[in-house]
Write a structure and sequence with these properties.
Layout: E1 2-8, E2 11-18, E3 21-27, E4 33-35, H1 49-56, E5 68-71
Antiparallel strand pairs: 1-2, 1-5, 2-3, 3-4
Domain DUF7661: 3-71
Organism: Pseudoduganella rivuli
Protein name: DUF7661 domain-containing protein
Length: 72
């Protein structure tokens, strides 16, 4: 199962799964994860995850945290 990490306007988000079955989590500093308070629709392609997160959370952008980036 694939996992993708994103910095979404300063907040860490983990997306796990594949198209048709995405799960979203907020990773904690202790290594645990809690379910995110949003869903990723199943029809979102892997290549479109970053754009989807940017569109969903654009209101959270600040001058310091103004982008969404995929983390290694």
């Amino acid at each position: 199962m694939a996992e993708y990490r994103f910095n979404v306007f300063g907040k860490l988000v983990l997306i796990r799964g594949s198209a048709g079955a995405w799960e979203a989590f907020y990773p904690g500093p202790d290594g645990k994860r809690r379910p995110a308070d949003f869903i990723v629709p199943g029809d979102i392609a892997e290549a479109d995850l970053l754009e989807y997160l940017a569109d969903l959370f654009h209101e959270h952008a600040t001058p310091r945290n103004h982008s969404v980036t995929q983390l290694p």
